[in-house]
Amino acid sequence: MKNFLFLFFAITPLVAFAQQTLTLQECYVLAEKNYPLAKQTVLLEEKTQSEIAILEKGKLPKLDLNAQATYQSDVIELPLAIPNSTIEPPNKDQYRATLDANQLIYNGGNIAANSKLKTAELAAQQQQVAVNLYTLKNRINQNYFSVLLFQEQEKLLLSKMEVLDARLKEINTGVKYGAVLPASEQLLKAEQLKLEQQLSQINFDKQKALKNLSLLVFQDLDSNTILAKPAIFIAPEIESQRPELELFNLQEKQLETSKEVISKSNFPKLLGFAQAGYGNPGLNMLDNSFQDFYMVGLKLNWNIFDWGKTKEQKQTVDISKEIVSTEKETFLLNNEMQQKEAESDIDKYEAMLRKDSEIIELREKVLQATTSQLQNGAITSSEYITELNNLFEAKIDQQLHELQLALAKANYRIIKGDFK
After folding, report:
1. In which domain, by residue range, is 140 found?
2. pTM reported for the whole predicted model
3. Per-residue pLDDT tens for 40-54?
4. What's the confidence (pLDDT) of residue 81?
5. Which molecular function term from Gene Ontology is one that the record holds (predicted)?
6. b/e for 163-173, b at 16 or more Cβ within 10 A?
């Protein structure tokens, strides 16, 4: 046992030098920065920029090269012979190659409206990524506070080990001079072995929780990592600031923007066009030879009656907005219920901690009296160990309740979205 304690305290300075301290807030930041899902924010922006660039190309001239060769069974002929006329009918084999250009002049702002819709879709998609990343905070909390609990339990067990070691030295002296039975010494040694077993178990559990936390924050965390115990303050008066609420607002904005696109889809479209070509025949069907030709003009397209299609599309969008609104109301209701439950947990652990302090104070007085009785041989080691265990169980309960209170407060802040 002496060798165990000597080894532990001997390596403590070396371990402390290499220790890494990490806070709960740093874990949140690391997870949101390094989690694979976070990459989607940039990818979605690149995708939207590419889609908008494609839409903008609709304003550029459209060029088409066309060529054809045909043979037809009949051609235009004059029904009557005209004196002194040398007009020949067109050939049945005909050839044509053209270069066609179309330039959009006006389309009622349809391209701009679609670009605006793409931007609104991007904002909603990126916010959805933020919502998905936000769920990591709950998983981080569970693992972070598990590690903290194991850290605190380890400290208490080591403190208990020191107390037992001191009592064992006193008992050894008593056994040496025949004042104490050897069984008392053996009971204390057995209790020390039990503590070593508990420390080993805590270490394995701590490593497991650290490994899970490492995967979430993408940092190498080991037994040298110290997690700082957070001081968490809550503000019940602050309204919910969950990212889901912003997502609902952006989804409604996206749907409203889509109505603008629907409206502009029926605006008139004005295009300018030009055609240059070479063929046989050309534009003059009576000239039976290869010739070049060109044509320029304007073209207007306006769907003046769509059988109520636009109206029905807008009604569909309005229904979608109502669906989003009901989802938002449902979320707020569930969120409020979660807040009430978290507040109840906070009150519960605060009340338990007040009792913990009183219990520990009484247990310390009992142990103090028991220690004196053990030293005087008035009680057995077994009775002393019982009271020692009672004290440290009370201290462990206090540590557990403190961390449960901190976890409840951390969860409450996540429920409220209070991270500003």
Report:
1. 25-68+102-267+302-416
2. 0.80
3. 999 999 999 999 999
4. 60
5. porin activity
6. ebeebbeebee
